[in-house]
From TrEMBL:
CDD domains: YihA_EngB. This is Probable GTP-binding protein EngB. Belongs to the TRAFAC class TrmE-Era-EngA-EngB-Septin-like GTPase superfamily. EngB GTPase family. GO terms for cellular component: cytosol. PANTHER family: ENGB-TYPE G DOMAIN-CONTAINING PROTEIN, MSS1/TRME-RELATED GTP-BINDING PROTEIN. SUPFAM superfamilies: P-loop containing nucleoside triphosphate hydrolases. It comes from Levilactobacillus hammesii DSM 16381. The keyword DNA damage does not apply. Its cofactor is Mg(2+). PROSITE patterns: G_ENGB. The lineage of its organism: Bacteria, Bacillati, Bacillota, Bacilli, Lactobacillales. The gene is engB.
Length: 197
């Protein structure tokens, strides 16, 4: 999909604040600092629409981005941010659980992991959670430019094993600076959003 127009429509904490236009939605989830903003920027051909931050975990709302009046990207605040209080974590859990389990427009989830390391417990838990609710999920391994090409297969196998996946079809190696994986991610998103389900 060629994207020229994106705007932040809504920052929502609860369902009353979700957009009502009815476009399909693709959620982006991942640990703080995994590269979510960078991935989004590559997908929408911009250098700096979505802030890339060095202060992890700031975003605590669901942010809906209108992409060409066709779909929404829903930026789900990063998990595994140790510095927030227990009550904030509970609030966060409640907010994303409500969204992920009750939103009809949600057609797929892009789950980001860091290609350089084995998926964390948080990554695995998130994946199992999405699988439990039958949410179609694409695993995007970010920062793959930071490991040698010769190690990519190993990284993919490690993710497959940790997430207990039947195959590697839904794992994409991605690099924001090199724009590697962009088309594959878009293909999956378009398939989920518009692919006739
Ligand atoms: N080399 C490399 N660096 C990346 C890549 N993706 C992200 N980064 C860097 O990783 C850091 C975090 O990236 P962000 O895109 O801000 O991560 P985020 O997940 O949006 O972070 P939060 O806003 O804290 O949730 C930044 O310094 C990015 O430049 C990538 O594919 N390759």
């Amino acid at each position: 999909m060629e994207v020229n127009h994106v705007e932040l429509v809504m920052s929502a904490v609860d369902p009353a604040q979700y957009p009502t236009t009815g476009y399909p939605e693709i959620a982006l989830v991942g640990r703080s600092n995994v590269g979510k903003s960078s991935l989004t920027n590559v997908l929408i051909n911009r250098r700096s629409y979505a802030r890339t931050s060095s202060q992890p975990g700031k975003t605590q709302t669901l942010n809906f981005y209108n992409v060409e009046d066709q779909l929404y990207f829903v930026d789900v605040p990063g998990y595994g941010y140790a510095k927030v209080s227990k009550s904030e974590r509970e609030k966060w859990g409640q907010m994303i659980e409500t969204y992920l389990t009750q939103r009809d427009q949600l057609k797929g989830v892009v789950s980001l992991v860091d290609a350089r390391h084995a998926p964390t417990e948080d990554d695995i838990q998130m994946y199992k959670y999405l699988a439990y609710f039958n949410l179609p999920t694409l695993i995007v391994a970010t920062k793959s430019d930071k490991i040698a090409r010769g190690k990519w297969n190993q990284a993919v196998s490690q993710i497959k094993k940790a997430m207990d996946l039947p195959n590697t079809d839904n794992i994409i190696m991605f690099s924001a600076p090199k724009k590697i994986g962009k088309d594959a991610v878009w293909n999956w998103i378009e398939q989920q959003a518009f692919g006739g389900n």
